[in-house]
Amino acid sequence: MSPAIRIHRLHCAYPQTPVLRDLTFQVDRGELFIIIGPNGSGKTTLIKALAGLLSISSGEIFFKERSLKHYKQKDLARNIAYVAQADIADSPFTVQEMVLMGRTPYLGILGLDSRADLEIARQAIAFTGLSHLAGRRLSSLSGGERQRAYIARAICQHPELILLDEPTAALDLSHQIRIMDLMERMKTAQGTSVVMVSHDINLAAMYADRLLLLVDGRMAACGPPSQVIDERILSQAYDCGLLVDSSPAGPWLRVNLMRNDPEQNAET
Ligand code: ADP
To answer: How far apart are the CA of 42 and the centre of ligand 1, in A?
Structure first.
């Protein structure tokens, strides 16, 4: 399988703070790839680096086998969509106006939206189940609706690769599942490669083709959930007691947290 994005010996640092250390991996085309890891392990830094938003200290990121640094910003925006962790809530735009911004990298010299752009935006809004809210201001939407609107904008870009930073954070259970189903549909219906940061290991275990576990900016594990969702690996990474078993809901593994007070944990 040819890679959608390939990372070779990547190091990233903020001033005086090394964050990502010697990361080498690739995401295959049409793969749903989820980055997990404890707080501060470098997940957001990594996804921003993949989006071309951070200058890297050393190493290389290749998109379609060409170094990211050789892409013009407009070309990158046509190929890679990035949905940040918490986008501004008090935007003056309506859902439709904001989603149409996803067409910006394709606009002609006059900067006008063509009929085709409007149709693509309409489809993206429908795909995310927001047609009835197209004329509403973003600031009047719930967190889940707004998150779907930002995803609709990303879809409108017609990207080959979509990068999302914790898209399910702060959403209720049904919205978490809807966002994950949406990403799986992007993958299967459109062949889009999806890379996502998630703080929710169980959700990640249900949907990921592969997981990357970051600890302290290093790769602690990378592989299908059956390899990474492992008691020893995860309890070491997160520094807490946990048990892994088969989910009663489907063919995936489940992580069960243990209380620090051992008397409250069931006998195993
Ligand atoms: P995660 O997403 O896994 O929680 P981050 O990538 O946000 O981790 O952060 C990794 C490390 O980089 C943390 O120690 C954090 O404090 C540091 N960091 C993040 N952003 C900046 C920044 N703009 N300047 C300096 N340090 C930062």
So the answer is: 6
Per 3-state DSSP, what percentage of the chain is helix, strand, and coil (rounded to 5)? 40, 30, 35
Domain, as residue range, for 29: 5-267
> Residue 139: pLDDT above 80?
yes
CATH number for position 89: 3.40.50.300
- Does ligand 1 come within 6 angstroms of the Cβ of 85? no
Identify the CA nearest to 63 among candidates 10, 5, 1. 5
Whether residue 40 has its Cβ less than 6 Å from ligand 1: yes
Whole-model pTM: value is 0.91
| Pocket of ligand 1 contains residue 94 by CB under 6 Å | no
Number of domains in the chain: 1
Measured by CA distance, the residue closest to atom 19 of ligand 1 is: 45
Q: What is the pLDDT of residues 186-197, one digit of tens each?
A: 899 889 999 999
The tokens describing 5, both together, are: 């994005």
Q: Counting atoms of ligand 1 from 1, which one is nearest the CA of 48?
A: 6
Give tens-digit pLDDT for 166-222.
988 877 888 889 889 989 988 998 899 999 999 999 999 999 999 999 999 999 999
